[in-house]
Design a protein that fits this description.
Shape: globular
CATH topology: Deoxyribonuclease I, Chain A
Largest sheet: 7 strands, mixed
CATH superfamily: Endonuclease/exonuclease/phosphatase
Structural class: alpha+beta
Number of domains: 1
Radius of gyration: 19 Å
Order of helices and strands: EHEHEHEEEEEEEHEHEEHEEEEEEE
Distance between the termini: 15 Å
Number of strands: 20
Oligomer: single chain
Length: 346
């Protein structure tokens, strides 16, 4: 496996690494692609709005423009930290099928990175799934699964939502695991829908515990659009994602996004409020200063100005593809989030 070497001249105060000390690095990211649909009316899912005759007038031209915008954003994630070519690992949500991911990774802005795809169709009524893209120069998949999140409403009827995605593999010689999520939305009210996200958190926690039972030092990344902030019950109590690396209790995960949340940094604006629903959370094996193996070093929201509304009432908000049914020609209603992990170049 070809190894990326970065001489750490950038972000030295954050990394806490001696100047000019060579390290290997990896960038792990998550991005909600906001309705990356093809133009085909698929049976058994509610995707009629994303057809040429549908409410959104979803033409081939608009689809290609959307792909180009997504490819541009992905290719630039981490540029402020000197990263190039797109994340080593990228979890994605709100994608319709494998085909749209194949179109995305074939775009000229991403083609050289040779992204490979892990994807399963989920039973979500709208047809949206989660997926994982990875660059084989960094990562080799050894196993994957798509655990089903089974929910029921007050009448006992099935609520069809996104499955979760668990991918295991080898990252630059080290076993690592990635759990990609898109937890149930707040549509219908935060309190009313809270049990659904709590159930999603419980399922994620189950898979974390399963991996830790096999290997207590397992390096696990939980990522996704969780539709809750780092302080919510689903994260703090059920997933057990703690806010401080220095005070982790046995079995807790570290929510690397919590310090950003406390500073008022968000990844989207939900109902005119600033939220950090897009998160990356790591197991304890990724925390610490011993760089003989990969450790977490930086967490960021990639909110570069080119991804933002430039003026008007929503200045500074993510520049999305649609405002209602009005084509904006933008990117997503979420900003990407990412972490950098590093290890000594021994």
């Amino acid at each position: 496996m070809r190894r990326l070497m970065i001489l750490v001249f950038f972000a030295l105060p954050v990394l806490g690494i001696k100047a000019q000390q060579p390290v290997r690095a990896g960038l792990i990211a998550f991005y909600n692609l906001e309705n990356l649909f093809d133009t085909i009316d698929s049976p058994d899912v509610y995707d009629e709005d994303f057809t040429p005759e549908g409410l959104n007038k979803w033409t081939g031209r608009r689809y290609q423009e959307k792909l180009g915008n997504m490819a541009l954003a992905i290719s630039r994630i981490g540029e402020e930290d000197g990263w190039q070519g797109g994340p080593a690992i990228l979890g994605v949500s709100e994608i319709e099928n494998r085909s749209v991911l194949e179109d995305l990774v074939a775009h000229p802005l991403l083609k050289a990175s040779n992204y490979q795809i892990v994807h399963y169709d989920s039973p979500d009524r709208r047809g949206v799934d989660v997926g994982l893209l990875y660059r084989p120069r960094f990562f080799r998949v050894t196993a994957s699964a798509s655990p089903e999140l089974v929910l029921k409403d007050d009448q006992g009827e099935r609520i069809y939502t996104r499955d979760q995605l668990v991918v295991s593999g080898v990252f630059d010689g080290e076993p690592m695991h990635f759990i990609v999520n898109h937890w149930p939305s707040r549509s219908g009210g935060e309190m009313t829908t809270r049990p659904r996200r709590n159930a999603a958190a419980a399922l994620t926690r189950y898979h974390v515990d399963s991996l830790l039972a096999i290997d207590p030092q397992a390096k696990i990344f939980v990522m996704g659009d969780l539709n809750d902030d780092p302080s919510n019950e689903s994260l703090r109590k059920i997933l057990r994602a703690a806010p401080k690396a220095s005070k982790l209790k046995e079995g807790e995960l570290y929510n690397v996004m919590y310090p950003l949340f406390k500073k008022g940094i968000g990844s989207l604006n939900y109902r005119d409020g600033l939220n950090l629903f897009d998160q990356i959370i790591v197991s304890q094996a990724l925390v610490g200063k011993d760089l003989s193996s990969y450790k977490f070093r930086i967490a960021r929201v990639f909110n570069s100005p080119f991804l933002m509304q430039k003026d008007g009432q929503y200045k500074g908000y993510p520049l999305r593809s649609f405002a209602g049914t009005v084509w904006q020609g933008g990117f997503s209603d979420h900003f990407p989030v990412y972490v950098i992990i590093v290890r000594n170049n021994d």
